[in-house]
Amino acid sequence: MAQITRFDGNLKPFADDALGTERTVFGAETQDDTLDANINADFWRGWGIVGVNGLPTKQDFNAFAYTSTALTAHLYQTGVSPWNDEQEYFTGSITNVGGVLYKAIQDNIGEEPSADDGSNWESITGTSYTLPESDETTVGGVEKATQAEAESESLNKNITADNAKHTKGSAKAWVNFNGTGVIAIRESYNVSSLTDDGTGRYRVNMTNPLVNENGVVLTNHCSQNTYSYSTSMTKGVMNSAGVAHVMGQNSAANTFLDQVYMQVAIFGDLA
Amino acid sequence: MIIKIKRADGGVSLMSCVESAIVSEKESPTKKEIKDFVDAQVAQSFPKFGIDGKPTGEVDESVILSWSEVDESDIPTVRNYRDAWTHGFEIDLEKAKAIQKDLIIRKAHERVEKDEFGVQDFSTVKKELAGIDFDSIKSVDDLYNTWADSIDNRKDKRKYDLKRKK
């Protein structure tokens, strides 16, 4: 048999356009479009509902064909039929839960796939991951990277919102502050306090410190938030695992200097 | 919240605490929790180092004398002599004189950078600076108006106001 070409259009059941009661529920005189109504006791019995010498009605023929083709149309709509708690499933059966496909690994009834412990169903495609709680160690079946694994960039480990900060390339703390007038922090991350020690000299205190004092302190400054020329410069160094010393200075006169826009970023491994 | 830290060298440091760091665990921390937070911040900022070179977790008392919360309105907004601030936000005149000398040199450098000064002009400023009798200066206002003529020769006297609006 040659491959059947897909119907080019929206597949609808037989007699979907029937008028009035030209199509009724199989074995009844009422009209209904739902499969729940059409698949009834008479449908299961079949033509036994017609007497030995009786003749099936046009409505019953329409009902029979409508229901049969509606089942096919349903599959065209869904691709794989959604799981139902009364459906019998057999090893190898495929069903659909919210767009995620599951394959039965043993015969079962009433075992909801997405809640299954893996003894009845296995996900085969389109897994929808839920965000993990902070204490969960796997995400979508993939093990979540620990701090050490994130720092070492281990392959095949998940990086999530709460452990992304541990990757080597991420700044572990940063702060933008006004180094003139009364020193004021504009924005910061993982910074608990900023100390003004004098003209152009500041201490940046980290909320969560580095593992040691060997981190990198990047500094920058600007006297105004537009293009400007300056010979002043900034310096920074970790004084301890949790404190960076930052300096602004005039490079020509070799004196400390306050700056309006002081910017500091700290890199290293967190403790 | 700003903490005034009195240093043993007579100067003062000012610690600005990040509010979210204090209330990260509780929205309304108790006074004791705030005090513990501040104490920990000071100990972290001014640590006493052990013989292994690591912070001991204690404050270095050879550097820090005491600390307390300060109202922002009490802090000078003008920082010309920031490194001469005393524990009470007064100006230590002797420290301020050294700052003024550095400032005069810095201004001369800035003129050089802007091509307003040549090498000879810079030498002139240094000579003028050497000729200033800083010992005779008895007030911050007088110091504030002390300049090498090549840098600033205006005769109108200005008052040094710590709280001047910028």
* Tally of helical runs of chain B: 5
Helix and strand composition category of chain B: alpha+beta
Low-confidence stretches of chain A: none
Give the low-confidence spans of chain B: none
Share in β-strands of chain B: 15-25%
User: What's the order of the H and E elements of chain A?
Assistant: HHHEEEEEHEEEEEEEEE
N-C termini distance of chain A: 69 Å
How confident overall, as mean pLDDT of chain B?
86
Q: Specify which chain pair forms the largest interface.
A: A-B, 31 and 38 residues
β-strand percent of chain A reads 25-35%
Estimate the helix proportion of chain A, in percent.
10-25%
Strand arrangement, largest sheet of chain B? Answer: 2-1-5
Helical amount among residues of chain B, as a percent range?
Answer: 25-40%
First and last CA, distance of chain B: 22 Å
Number of strands of chain B: 5
Tell me about this structure.
The complex is a heterodimer of chains A (271) and B (166). Chain A has four helices and 14 strands. With 271 residues, chain A is of the alpha+beta class. In chain A, strands 8, 9, 11, 12 and 13 form a five-stranded antiparallel beta sheet that branches. Chain A has a four-stranded antiparallel beta sheet with strand order 7-6-14-10, with no helix packed on it. The longest helix of chain A has 21 residues. Chain B is α+β, with helices and mostly antiparallel strands and 166 residues long. Chain B folds into two domains: 69 residues, no CATH class; 75 residues, no CATH class. Chain B has five helices and five strands. In chain B, the strands form two sheets. Chain B has a three-stranded antiparallel beta sheet with strand order 2-1-5. A two-stranded antiparallel sheet of chain B has the order 3-4. Classes of the chains: A alpha+beta (271), B alpha+beta (166). Chains A and B meet through strand 7, strand 8 and strand 13 of A and strand 1, strand 2, helix 2 and helix 3 of B.
